[in-house]
Specification:
This protein is of the alpha+beta class and about 100 residues long. It contains five helices and four strands. The protein has one domain. A hairpin with a 6-residue loop joins strand 3 and strand 4. Helix 1 packs antiparallel against helix 2.
């Protein structure tokens, strides 16, 4: 496993643990287990991360963004900082909804 994948796993695990404190373990695990490319244990530890880590992180952020965008953004700040300029936030033309998309 590469160092970058291990770093993403640690950052995701930390973010999951913060969400478990805020939202509770049941809601957090329910949301996390919807993220393709991520396998998480019952205690919130990322067991496997497969595929492009930045794409998995983007899916992870999208899953939680709908719950409470300002709260999630604050608690996810270390994860957002780690992936830096590789994602942008845009508003779709017909919706007042932010979508996190990878930069190509």
């Amino acid at each position: 496993m590469s160092d970058s994948v291990q770093l993403y796993q640690k950052l995701l695990t930390d973010a999951i643990h913060k969400q478990m404190t805020i939202l509770g373990p049941q809601i957090t695990l329910l949301k996390v287990r919807n993220v393709t490319g991520l396998t998480v244990t019952d205690d919130g530890t990322v067991a496997t991360l497969y595929g492009n880590p930045e794409v998995v992180v983007t899916r992870f952020l999208e899953e939680f963004r709908e719950l409470s965008s300002p709260l999630v953004k604050k608690t996810m700040q270390p994860l957002l900082s780690a992936i830096g300029p590789s994602i942008t936030q845009t508003t779709t033309p017909n919706e007042n909804k932010q979508v996190v998309q990878p930069v190509k």
